[in-house]
Amino acid sequence: MPIWLLATTNVTWYLLPLAMVVSLVYSASRFERTEKILRRGFRLFLQILGLMFAVLALLWLFSLNL
Amino acid sequence: MSTSSPKGPYPWETANPFASGLLAWLIPGAGHFYQGRTVKGIIYLVCIWGLYFGGLRMGEGQVVYQKPKSQANGSRISLSLAAQLGVGFPTVLAFIQTKRYSSDDNRPVGYLEHPLKTDFEGILLGKGPGHADGAGRLIGTIELASSDIGVIWETRGKFVGTLDGKPIELPLSGSLELERPIAGGMRRQLRISVAPSPSEHPHLQQSIRGSIPRSFVDGFLAPPDPESLRELNFRLAKTYDLALVFTWIAGLLNVLAIWDCVQGPAYGIGDEDEKPSEAPAGTPPPPAPLEPTSPAPQESR
């Protein structure tokens, strides 16, 4: 299945480009050097995804006995 | 922030801040291009415009608009539009489109001043004996022309295309309902009756309902009619909300880009120094490393 078709099945996939853009723009507004923008942007992207997965895991745990 | 530095002056310090800020607001990254900060300009342009126009496309062009006076309750600049205003140029176009939408000439069309021939997509609706249940999907070309028959106008024409994939030609006749020329979305709603055929049951009433293309100039960022907005919300559901969120975030992110353009990066000009470098004159020397706290080893006797 082409990757863009994943977005038609579940809107959660839109999180990936959204998180990437937010990370890059935020880092670009903090730093001036391209290499640092990309490195910090990638780090922030992973942090956002990690946080979202942590929240997902927490919600999944809470819903186990429902 | 834009503090002078031994490595300065920096592009944001030398360029005209008003021109930089205005350009950055109008088109994300344009202020950075003006200052010669090309890579950052590309990052902002691709990311912010990508998010903004991506959201616009997901919402079928009906997520950025200003409510016309007739539909506004209270302020005509909603919180949604306020967030989208961070991306200046396209959002400012929405104000112009609302002005065009609100003009007296822009009203639903009941007759055609000129013959119309265009693509049509929609459904065939029927009521009465001899009509199969369910609406068939029509794709093809529609030709219509209106004539004055005394008291009222009558529109006649034909649809040629396919009904659920099978070729069909439908004679059309009756009153025409065509959405106003200027409104949100790239399709314009149309409804007209199918002319009665001698081979069909005399009580069978059929009509076609669907849409024809709308020109880009008339549909881009224009306010949608409430009915088509309800239909869009129903059809796209969560995707419409997500499209709105994309455009909001794009607008808000551009505020950061404008700030960076006018004032420089938030962590300032120090980020180019990974390693400590020589401090500028007048700066106190860095503190000396702390002495080890563990007791010195005693001499062995």
Quick overview:
The complex is a heterodimer of chains A (66) and B (301). Chain A has helices at 3-9, 15-30, 34-62.
Largest sheet of chain B: 6 strands, antiparallel, barrel
Largest interface: A-B, 18 and 27 residues
**Shape field of chain A:** elongated
Helix segment count of chain B? 9
- Spell out the helices and strands of chain B N to C: HHHHHHEEEEEEHHH
List the strand order in the largest sheet of chain B.
1-2-3-4-5-6
Mean pLDDT of chain B: 84
Q: What is the 3D form of chain B?
A: elongated
From the helix content, strand content and strand pairing of chain B, which structural class follows? alpha+beta
- Total helices of chain A: the number is 3
Q: Count the strands of chain A?
A: 0
> What class, by secondary structure content of chain A?
mainly alpha
Work out the number of β strands of chain B: 6
Give your account of this protein's structure:
- The complex is a heterodimer of chains A (66) and B (301).
- Chain A is an all-alpha fold.
- Chain A contains 3 helices and no strands.
- Chain A is elongated and about 50 Å long.
- By secondary structure, chain B is α+β, with helices and mostly antiparallel strands.
- Chain B folds into 2 domains: 11-102 and 225-263, no CATH class; 116-219, no CATH class.
- The longest helix of chain B has 26 residues, at 238-263.
- Chain B is elongated and about 90 Å long.
- Chain B starts with 10 loop residues before the first helix and ends in a 38-residue tail after the last helix.
- Mean pLDDT of chain B is 84; it is low at 276-283 and 286-301.
